[in-house]
Amino acid sequence: MCYHVSFKAKAHDLIKAFDAPFPEANQVQEFYHANGFNLPKLPALVNDPTGRKLELIRWGYIPDDIESIDEAKTVARKRLNARSEAVWFNSYKEAIFNNRCIIPVSGFFESKHVGKEKIPHYIHPKENKFFNLIGLHHKWIDPVNKSEIDSFAILTGPANELMASIHNSAKRMPLMIDSNQIEMWLDPGLSKQDIKALMKPCDDRNMAAYPISKIFSKPKVDSNIPEIIEPISIPTLFD
Question: Which ranges of the chain would DSSP assign to H, the alpha helix?
Answer without folding.
Answer: 11-18, 69-78, 95-98, 161-166, 182-186, 192-198
